[in-house]
């Protein structure tokens, strides 16, 4: 039994009267409108618009819970603390909760990136570890996450397919990296994309991560010349619609 707990994830609680306005000025998704049971995938970027951390936001009353990569939780908390300044915000680990995942939990929220990823929720940790199963399923759909796959300060947020995976709002106020991200969107200048290719077809110059256990190579490749058949269906459809429009 693998259970439902994703043991490679951690949760940070952002609380205090300035919590939501604080995050609103930093992240790619709108935070004040975050509602319970409606998680949002978002990113914390460099000023140039490159991915530093990606994570999922959950509302808990006025607090915001950050469902993040466990190995990066302390680094993320430290980065957020640097931005806090004198705001009335507390950033702390939420030890009593864990992230859960299942393909068969219709009463739970869907993953905010892609419905095919399955259902995701927060609850007390249970026995077992569903992390390997979720990772294999996620990568089979061509959805990437975390420092190893996205690359920290290496990949522009829109190159991670963030727009297609609902990871950016264009009608919110300014945030770190907003200027370049918005420019790329409105000028349709996303010239490269993260994709997964068979490991035997890997190009080390473009490679972000090699995954021998799954026989995959995650690479940043130019959109021009990409074979639509090599793309996950959701991404090929989105690129096709944009080109047609």
Automatic annotation (TrEMBL):
Name of the molecule in the record: Uncharacterized protein
InterPro entries tied to this protein: TrmE/GcvT-like (IPR027266), YgfZ/GCV_T_CS (IPR017703), YgfZ/GcvT (IPR045179)
Keyword Transit peptide belongs to the record: yes
Organism annotation: Sphingobium wenxiniae (strain DSM 21828 / CGMCC 1.7748 / JZ-1)
Cited Gene3D superfamilies: Probable tRNA modification gtpase trme, domain 1
Keywords carried by this UniProt record: Transit peptide
BP terms from Gene Ontology: iron-sulfur cluster assembly
Endoplasmic reticulum is among the record's keywords: no
């Amino acid at each position: 039994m693998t259970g439902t707990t994703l043991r490679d994830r951690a949760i940070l609680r952002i609380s205090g009267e300035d919590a939501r306005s604080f995050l609103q000025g930093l992240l790619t998704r709108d935070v004040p409108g975050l509602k319970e049971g409606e998680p949002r995938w978002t990113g914390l970027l460099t000023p140039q618009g490159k991915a530093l951390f990606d994570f999922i936001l959950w509302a808990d009353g006025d607090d915001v819970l950050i469902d993040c990569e466990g190995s990066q939780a302390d680094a993320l908390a430290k980065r957020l603390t640097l931005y806090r300044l004198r705001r009335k915000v507390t950033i702390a680990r939420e030890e009593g909760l864990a992230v859960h995942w299942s393909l068969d939990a219709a009463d739970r929220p869907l993953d905010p990136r892609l419905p095919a990823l399955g259902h995701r929720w927060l609850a007390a940790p249970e026995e077992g570890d569903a992390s390997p199963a979720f990772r294999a399923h996620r990568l089979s759909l061509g959805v990437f996450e975390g420092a190893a796959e996205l690359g920290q300060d290496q990949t522009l947020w829109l190159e991670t397919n963030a727009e297609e995976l609902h990871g950016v709002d264009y009608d919110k106020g300014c945030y770190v990296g907003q200027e370049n991200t918005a420019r790329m969107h409105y000028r349709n200048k996303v010239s490269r994309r993260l994709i997964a290719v068979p490991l035997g077809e890997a190009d080390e110059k473009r490679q972000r991560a090699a995954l021998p256990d799954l026989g995959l190579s995650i690479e940043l490749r130019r959109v021009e010349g990409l074979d639509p058949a090599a793309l996950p269906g959701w991404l090929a459809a989105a690129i096709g619609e944009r080109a047609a429009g």
